[in-house]
Write a structure and sequence with these properties.
The complex is a heterodimer of chains A (317) and B (311). With 317 residues, chain A is of the alpha/beta class. Chain A contains ten helices and ten strands. Chain A folds into two domains: 233 residues, P-loop containing nucleotide triphosphate hydrolases (Rossmann fold, 3-Layer(aba) Sandwich); 72 residues, no CATH class. In chain A, the strands form two sheets. Chain A has a six-stranded mixed beta sheet with strand order 6-7-8-3-9-10, with helices on both faces. In chain A, strands 2-1-4-5 form a four-stranded antiparallel beta sheet, with helices on one face. In chain A, a hairpin with a 2-residue loop joins β9 and β10. The longest helix of chain A is centred in the middle third of the chain and has 18 residues. In chain B, α6 runs antiparallel to α7 and α6 packs parallel to α10. The chains are: A alpha/beta (317), B mainly alpha (311). Chains A and B meet through α2, α3, α6 and α7 of A and α1, α2, α11 and α12 of B.
């Protein structure tokens, strides 16, 4: 059953040099309990999609399209209606655990406050829930940690608390916005394993936003690739890794270091991300694409069979 | 992924992690330690406490009330009105033959009351408006800051005189008008702090969890700027006492027979040339002790709380 359906989402930011088209015509569906990855480099608009779903976009943003959650368009909801959905139905895991916790509040208050707000629970009931969720994210000695302040935890533990905050009201959809970027690799693996556990136990749908293909490979069933605010490719993760159908995806995969290959040289994608002022008129990846033909600079490709490229798969290098 | 999971659930992992956790003093415990290290500030706390006790219980020790005239010394104040333990005028009498000790107690009451009631209330009002302006920005911000700019351009002594001409010269009116004159204290600094803090990710996190704007301001931002408010209050209290004394000195403050430090100093200064120096000396000494103590307490608080000034 479809839980979230994003239709022709366009996000633009008014700025001094005209409008920045951060997200252009992005559409996707998420089923209940699905694990979906949104992959793209910095500036590809992936975080903005998450913020748009939560209704947290910056003030100078203009949004078009539809974000249907359980059949309701989130973009039409008022602030207070949205507040009722937040945390209870949809929650966001922030990227930087160092700055997304209030330094002057104890962990117990930060976690408990959410339950009190959404479920009208009492202080002691809220404390109980905070304790449960801290156990769920495997914070050892949680009982004695309730009264601690964020600075008394290490980075990995803080990220667990951030995850706990998102989980505490048992939402049906979790948006994880680069949940492991600020952590070192060993802790990354723990956090991803934790998310995997929780996802399985609670049947939550997870939209994982990341630039790290390694994280995606181990976690998500389906992957979408974003470039310059447009969808480039969408496919089941396995087939996307086996047989990427878009030159950009191919470039990305070639840029991932592999232990099995002797070839030490990594191939980078030449050039830099596109300037996104003004509406796109051609494939945004064309200037950096090795397979680009003259047509590519004129025609705006649309998604067909899970890929947005005018050239057939067989002809790509 | 399975390896990582096995490790995650192991006892050993729990052990390592709990060892890794940092235990440290809380912010306020740290601040208390730094404040106690500031000797003058600690000494000043005792001085101020002594003053407060004096103001609260002083009347119990006075032989005379603060409004009754001692006819025995009236007319011979210069020779017989000085400080004298035998007739109960510990600090002597004022120019009308009233007991100066009782009057200084009463003056301390008024001045400290004005300082400790009007000061914090004024800061609270300014901080609230500053927080709203900083958080919501836009029109509201422009309106509040514009109003602030106009307000601080009003000369406050004239405002005082006009206000008291309309509403009388009681203690309540005095506190009210002091709040109205001083509410601007702390507005800009709180506004700046809030503008800086509202872009931090934890505010987004609170919004993501469905908190209303007011819950975010009062539950999440307020603890973060509490130190600014505390420091500002410690600065505003002596300022407010000073302002009250100034207007009382000029003769528009509190209504006779009630009195304040400023009013007593004013009376003492008028009679200074007649050789009755005690009439100026005692109230001035209390005023100075209070001001200096409050100043050092403020200084100690600043050292203890300002995160930029950690030693």
């Amino acid at each position: 059953m479809t839980l979230l359906s994003v239709k022709n989402l366009k996000i633009r930011f008014r700025s001094g040099d005209g409008k920045i088209h951060a997200v252009n015509d992005v559409s996707f569906d998420m089923a209940q309990g699905q694990k979906l990855a949104l992959v793209g480099e910095s500036g590809s608009g992936k975080s903005q999609i998450a913020l748009a779903i939560m209704g947290l976009l910056a003030r100078n943003a203009e949004v078009e399209g539809e974000i249907l959650y359980d059949g309701r368009n989130l973009l039409d909801l008022s602030r207070s209606e949205l507040n009722r959905l937040r945390a209870k139905e949809i929650a966001l895991i922030f990227q930087d655990p160092m700055s997304s916790l209030n330094p002057y509040m104890t962990i117990e208050r930060q976690l408990g406050e959410v339950v009190e707000l959404h479920e009208g629970a009492s202080r002691s009931a809220a404390r109980k829930r905070a304790l449960d969720v801290m156990d769920a994210v495997k914070i050892p000695d949680a009982k004695n940690r309730l009264k601690a302040y964020p600075h008394e935890f290490s980075g990995g533990m803080r990220q667990r608390i951030v995850i706990a905050m998102a989980l505490i009201c048992k939402p049906r959809l979790i948006l994880a916005d680069e949940p492991t970027t600020a952590l070192d690799v060993t802790v990354q693996a723990q956090i991803m394993a934790l998310l995997d556990d929780i996802q399985r136990d609670m049947g939550t749908a997870v939209l994982l936003i990341t630039h790290d293909l390694g994280v995606v490979a181990g976690f998500c069933e389906d992957t979408m690739v974003l470039y310059g605010g447009r969808m480039m490719e969408a496919a089941p993760t396995l087939s996307l890794f086996d047989a990427p159908g878009h030159p950009y995806t191919r470039g990305l995969l070639r840029a991932v270091p592999r232990i099995t290959e002797d070839d030490a040289e990594l191939s980078a994608i030449p050039g830099s991300p596109p300037n996104q002022t003004g509406a796109p008129t051609a494939c945004p990846f064309a200037p950096r694409c090795v397979d680009a033909i003259a047509e590519c600079h004129r025609i705006l490709p649309t998604m067909q069979d899970g890929r947005a490229c005018i050239r057939p798969v067989e002809e790509l290098t | 992924m399975t390896d990582a999971k096995k490790r995650l659930n192991s006892q050993e992992f729990a052990q390592t992690v709990s060892e890794e956790m940092i235990t440290s003093r809380s912010f306020w415990a740290d601040a208390r330690r730094r404040f106690l290290g500031h000797r003058l500030a600690v000494f000043s706390i005792f001085m101020l406490l002594a003053l407060l006790l004096f103001a609260i219980f002083g009347h119990a020790f006075a032989q005379w009330s603060y409004e009754e005239i001692d006819w025995n010394v009236l007319g011979r104040i210069k020779t017989e009105g000085g400080p004298n333990w035998e007739n109960g005028h510990y600090f002597g009498v004022d120019e009308l033959g009233r007991d100066l000790f009782a009057r200084v107690v009463q003056g301390s009451r008024t001045s400290l009351m004005v300082g400790f009631v009007a000061g914090p209330l004024a800061v609270l009002l300014g901080a609230t408006l500053g927080a709203l302006a900083g958080y919501f920005g836009g029109r509201l911000d422009q309106f509040i800051v514009g109003f602030y700019t106009i307000w601080i351009s009003i000369p406050y002594i004239i405002f005082f005189v006009v206000w008291q001409a309309f509403f009388g010269r009681s203690l309540t009116q005095m506190i009210l008008v002091i709040i109205l004159v001083n509410w601007t204290a702390g507005l800009l600094i709180v506004r700046g702090q809030v503008m800086m803090l509202k872009n931090r990710e934890f505010v987004d996190a609170a919004r993501m969890l469905g908190m209303s704007d007011f819950a975010i301001i009062f539950k999440h931002l307020a603890p973060n700027i509490l130190w600014v408010i505390v420091i500002y209050t410690s600065i505003v209290i002596p300022e407010v006492i000073m302002a009250e004394s100034l207007v009382s000195f000029l003769g528009v403050g509190i209504q006779e027979p009630n009195t304040s430090w400023g009013a007593l100093i004013s009376e003492g200064a008028k009679t200074m040339t007649f050789g009755t120096l005690w009439q100026l000396g005692y109230p001035a000494a209390f005023f100075v002790i209070a001001q200096v103590s409050l100043y050092y307490i403020g200084d100690g608080l600043r050292d203890a709380l300002d995160p930029k000034d950690r030693r």
